[in-house]
Design brief:
Strand 1 (2-4) and strand 2 form a beta hairpin. This protein is α+β, with helices and mostly antiparallel strands and 557 residues long. It has a 6-stranded antiparallel β-sheet with strand order 10-9-8-13-12-11, sandwiched between helices. Strands 4-3-7-6-5 form a 5-stranded antiparallel β-sheet. Helix 6 (166-181) runs antiparallel to helix 10 (291-327) and helix 11 packs across helix 12 (400-415). It has 3 domains: 2-133, Beta-Lactamase; 143-320, Beta-Lactamase (2-Layer Sandwich); 328-555, PPM-type phosphatase domain (Phosphatase 2c, domain 1), CATH 3.60.40.10. Helix content is 35%, strand content 27%.
Length: 557
């Protein structure tokens, strides 16, 4: 080493002055003596800290750091100069530095020692520091963290799509977030009817557990603005506490101290202006939560809130749809003397919440019975409801053709200017007779009923007619059947015969006839056999299935 113009610099190499070499470096090079006083600094310091090299000469090396860091790092440098060892020496450490304009900048610092030449007093030892702007590295690291967080929240949202309802999704949310975002513990808080946040679940990852926090949270509630959850609720943005054990905003300090938790963040799950939940994440190790990651959590809270809100709304709609669908079907089948009744209904694919199939069995004033099965083209709860309730109102006539004519008129009246939606139907009026059952039958565009005789033979019965809701002038033919004891009549919708396997082949009328022929002389067994055969047809099929309704009447012996 040599001194040039009062500055400590390396010997020149290859004929180029050492000061020239150091001046050309893009990184800041600082040399300090055994007392930590700056003896040399190259011009790159101006770009890094906004000061001239001469401004630092003779000052203590620690003065480039904010005051709160000077004591700790100054002692590290002193220990190195006196002992030759130190925690900062030989490693690159990220530290804040004080810019000449008063703000802080992040720098990467690498220290190395220069021992005095043999025979030179020990106090001639010095330390060389290389300082580099860390902002680009920090930005890249944050961008990497943000991309990881975004990818994690996307995976969480994708996983939530598999949840059958909002309640299940809520309780899957926090375990997935905790795992995907790499936090040690997670808590979920949901608003109750009192307008408070109540604990809805705690999840942790071994080896870190949080028994004290979990126990403290049970039975606890937060008002708006109280504690981490209440603050996230009040501010409607993520709230972070980097030191849980000393921050006055934390009302569960004893619990987090007992569990050794250091950093916490709470963020709201929002659907528009509605708070659905507050999520808390905790880490045992201190961890920074920069603004970029808070923005990711805020965005995730809104996205997840929209998804969960939509899922909750869909659950409510499905529940309403189930109620509406049940209103289109009898709650139970009545008992007809001498007749065994059985029915099966299965809704179709996911394109509609309420199917268009309906059936009904009702007594008439004169001791006869009306039986109706109908199918709306496509789907349509309104048309199905009009069909069923109009048929009930017109049933007193006791004539199937007149009942269908009344339904036809009602559908035409209800449609008005709406798109055409026709209905197929089959209407029966049953009259008990000494040796079985007499059936008056009219069909409006519907699949013909299947009769299984006492000999086990099957065939279609009735006369096909035109569908309902198209032509105001249409008329319907009628036919009469005598069903002896031991025979079975099966009514069904086209969801049976048009069920397609993966290759697109339909179940078909012939297969239905074979299934009915092979079934026991029992209405329940018959509808069960038909439903099972159709389900087998649909196994592995890519084709959407239609609503299915099957109604069977077996004449008792």
């Amino acid at each position: 080493m040599s001194r040039l113009e009062g500055e400590l610099v390396p010997e020149k190499s290859s004929g180029v002055p050492a000061a020239t070499l150091l001046a050309a470096l893009p990184d800041t090079v600082v040399v300090a003596d055994a007392l930590g006083r700056v003896t040399y600094v190259n011009p790159a310091v101006t770009r890094l800290l906004g000061c001239e090299p001469a401004d630092l000469l003779g000052r203590n090396l620690t003065e480039i750091m904010p005051p709160r860091f000077r004591t700790g790092h100054g002692s590290h440098i002193t220990r190195f100069l006196t002992t030759g060892t130190g925690e900062l020496v030989g490693h690159t450490t990220q530290l804040p530095a004080l810019h000449a304009e008063g703000h802080e900048v992040s720098i990467d610092v690498t220290l190395a020692g220069v021992q005095p030449a043999p025979g030179t007093p020990p106090d001639q030892a010095s330390v060389v520091g290389v300082l580099r702007d860390a902002s680009t590295t920090i930005l890249l690291e944050r961008q990497l963290q943000v991309s990881r967080y975004l990818a994690a929240t996307l995976r969480v949202t994708a996983a939530l799509t598999e949840a059958p309802d909002a309640d299940v999704a809520f309780h899957q949310l926090l375990p997935m977030l905790r795992t995907e975002l790499d936090w040690d513990a997670a808590l979920l808080w949901q608003p109750d009817e009192r307008g408070r946040l109540v604990h809805a679940g705690t999840w942790t990852t071994a080896p870190v557990t949080a028994p004290a926090l979990a126990a403290d949270s049970e039975g606890r509630s937060f008002r708006r603005g109280e504690g981490l959850p209440g603050l996230a609720w009040q501010r409607r943005v993520p709230v972070v506490v980097e030191n849980l054990q000393s921050d006055d905003r934390v009302v569960r300090r004893e619990a987090v101290r007992a569990d050794g938790l250091s950093t916490g963040v709470a963020f709201p799950v929002l659907r528009g202006g509605e708070l659905l939940a507050v999520c808390e994440l905790f880490s045992a190790e201190p961890r920074p939560v920069p603004p970029e990651l808070l923005e990711v959590l805020s965005h995730a809270g809104r996205q997840i809130g929209q998804f969960l809100g939509r899922l909750r709304a869909e659950s409510d709609v499905r529940e309403l749809a189930d109620t509406l669908q049940r209103s289109l079907l009898p709650s139970h089948l009545p008992t007809i003397p001498g007749v065994q009744l059985a029915a099966r209904y299965r809704p179709g694919g996911d394109t509609a919440l309420v199917g268009g199939d309906t059936y009904d069995v009702m007594p008439l004033p004169d001791g006869r019975w009306m039986v109706l099965i109908a199918d709306v083209c496509g789907t349509g709860a309104e048309a199905a409801a009009v069909t069923r309730h109009t048929a009930r109102a017109a049933a007193a006539s006791g004539n199937p053709a007149e009942i269908l004519a009344a339904v036809n008129s009602a559908l035409l009246h209800e449609q008005g200017q709406a798109p055409l939606r026709f209905v197929t139907a089959c209407c029966l009026v049953l009259e008990p007779v000494p040796d079985g059952l007499r059936v008056d039958l009219s069909v409006a565009g519907h699949p013909l009923p299947v009769l299984r005789s006492t000999a086990g033979e099957t065939c279609e019965v009735g006369v096909a007619g035109r569908p309902l809701g198209i032509d105001p002038e249409v008329t319907f033919d009628g036919s009469t059947l005598d069903l002896p004891a031991g025979s079975t009549l099966v009514l069904y919708t086209d969801g049976v015969t048009e069920a397609r396997d993966d290759a697109g082949h339909q179940f078909g009328e012939d297969a239905l006839l074979r299934v009915v022929a092979g079934a026991p002389v029992d209405a329940e067994a018959t509808v069960g056999a038909v439903a099972a055969a159709v389900e087998q047809q649909l196994v592995g099929s890519r084709h959407e299935h239609d609503d299915l309704a099957v109604l069977a009447l077996t004449i008792l012996r």
